[in-house]
Amino acid sequence: MYRSSLIIAFFSFLFLSGQQKQNPTDSTLIELNEVVLSAKVIFGSKFVAKNRTGSSYYLSPEEIKKFSYTDINRTLRSVPGVNIYEEDGFGLRPNISLRGTSPERSSKITLMEDGVLIAPAPYSAPSAYYFPTIARMQAVEILKGSSQVQFGPYTTGGAINMISTEIPDNFGIFLNSSYGSFQSGRIHTQLGDCYKNFGYSVEYLNYNSNGFKNLENGDNTGFDKNDLVAKFKVNTNPEAKLGQEFEVKVQYSDETSNETYLGLTQEDFDADPFRRYAGSQNDQMNAEHFQLMGTHALKFSDQFRITTIGYYNDFSRNWYKVDYVTIDGERQGIGNIFGNPNEYASYLNLVKGATNSGANDFLNARNNNRDYLSTGVQTKLDYHWSGENTYHDLEIGLRYHYDEEDRFQWMDDYAMVNGNMRLINAGVPGTNANRVSSAKAFASYAMYKLKINNLTLTPGLRYENIRLERLNYGTNDIERTGSELSERQNKVDVFIPGIGFNYNFNDLSIFGGVHKGFSPPSNQPGEDPEESVNYELGSRFSFAGISGELVGFYNDYSNLLGSDLAATGGTGSLDQFNAGEVRVQGIELLLNYNFLENNESLQLPFTFGYTLTDTEFLNSFGSENDIWGEVSAGDEMPYISKHQFNAALSLEHQSFEINLSGRYNGAFRTMAGNGPIPADEKVSSNFILDLGGKYRFNDHLAVTANAINLLDEAYAVARVPAGLRPGHPFGIYAGIELRY
């Protein structure tokens, strides 16, 4: 009945839209523009995104700059179909879902920067402990639904591609600096130029904060991040018979963040949501990321181009944090302690610093020391031609990829003395975890685009051949001699088909498609991949000054995989488990209207986005380590808000702009279930307002100001990894921009 109501409402809307008087001036919104795209982008512009055969969104440079966000969560909230739960309040480690995929550490979507996989180890350990800094991005592309066989390996929900700042067409210098609440600062600068046969760009970004949470000893709870990017390119003359271009990109970033997995009990959160327990005083993430990327483009003609990218990503991190507590020699994980606060009251008191340690009482801090490598080469061939009333485009892609995660971890034991942690036993590196997980993957795809008058069809086929392996050296062989080596392997060989369509009726287009959803398994022998069949049907429209998009989607999982992540209260083994059959369906709505469209000096654009995500397990099972709890058929998936919407209103003038944005995020459950959400498994809904503004003195100088959480709402964003954690409180920031 529910599904029938959605379908009836959807087609009723399409019918009413089609009855509106056609406006020829709006026809350009839905005409297909045939462009050969760079291999670094999915769309390259809003125009192309609006004419995909699948649902898509292009966050332009203008949209990204409106609020000067450094938080990817706030940047993506305007996009329907994107479901997010926060963790640290700054977006350092986001949890992003596309169309109901599991959001934990954004590990079930294809993440890219400049068209290259950017998760730490995309196949063997994809959890996003590294995420590119959104403040240095020029644009963000989000692809959902059908015809996404070009981008993998995660094809169920979609792909996100972040486009870094390009080499400018002419000489330019840019500087943006801001400062505000919680001693938060940012400096972002770029220098670049382009000549006939050579171009370059050098970019630096630092942003930092003392944090909005409070330790009793007054220690810093914030972070400090640096990002440096250099790009160089050489190219042949424009008139060359065989056009060539080669670009090298070098990126380095480091991060020190005083972040913890320890949250708060409900009682303590209600009293002071910004408190940090004494047991988290030494928790800190230290990380470094290095990327080397070379892109070579061969343009044989206006119709035929080959682009090849070689990439190397190295990421190392050590998140030092309390993971266990020992009382009288009995050890308990922090997830279990906060899940049963009454039963483990003595453990909690030690974490809070309310009691001192006895002879056998310790806080066990783990050095989560890991090195990641992700490297490979990929090639894209694009050939297009035209016939009478037809347009054809054939795109073929090949990629060989290798990645690995190297765990070399150990534990330190601390005593709690008068609210201060004192090191008692320093652990030996490698004695907690000592193993290497790796993946070798060959992927290829072919996508054919056929346009016949107003109809566009895009059938495609992807192939993934994956070999996953784990070498466990054991905690007694820290020299890795192989004396206690255990090995395990898993192999996947899969074809992923999909087809999409788009049909134009001048100011109305209908699009849709069917594709296979796929997510790689872990290295456990015999474990099956996550698979689904996904459907969507939508419309893009423009009438009476209103433009927008309405999409209905239905994802039918035959085998959903859950992951044992410490970030969601698990053990952190990364092992996956079978969750069986699941249904995810929903509606995405996007509306745009300009109240002052005919005004020559002022513009007043309004945007509204709404997402309904309805989930249901179709079978019963018990999830390992109680990550999702005991699941019964009919239960909803955890961590997914059923309702969310975003509204934005901007007043724009040649000299100034004022931007107001409001986001509603519906309540979600942290354990699978149905009906009313139990209080201890609920993250309540919230509505957050942000305000941003800019005044331009001239083409070279501008001042900016923005306010985060304008109403200063105190709200919880999650109950994982261990306890409640707050969202960003009210903060105000001001800055200056210089351009030459």
Automatic annotation (TrEMBL):
Keywords: Cell outer membrane, Membrane, Receptor, TonB box, Transmembrane, Transmembrane beta strand, Transport
Signal peptide: none
Membrane topology recorded in Swiss-Prot or TrEMBL: Multi-pass membrane protein
InterPro entries (alphabetical): Beta-barrel_TonB, Beta-barrel_TonB_sf, Plug_dom, Plug_dom_sf, TonB-dep_rcpt-like
SUPFAM superfamilies: Porins (SSF56935)
Residue span(s) of domain TonB-dependent receptor-like beta-barrel: 311-710
Subcellular localization(s) per the UniProt record: Cell outer membrane
All copies of domain TonB-dependent receptor plug, residue ranges: 53-159
UniProt cross-references to Gene3D superfamilies, sorted A to Z: TonB-dependent receptor, beta-barrel domain, TonB-dependent receptor, plug domain
Domain of life the protein comes from: Bacteria
PANTHER family per the UniProt record, alphabetical: FE(3+) DICITRATE TRANSPORT PROTEIN FECA, IRON III DICITRATE TRANSPORT PROTEIN FECA
Homology family: Belongs to the TonB-dependent receptor family.
The name this protein goes by in its record: TonB-dependent receptor
Record organism: Flagellimonas okinawensis
Phylogenetic placement of the source organism: Bacteria, Pseudomonadati, Bacteroidota, Flavobacteriia, Flavobacteriales
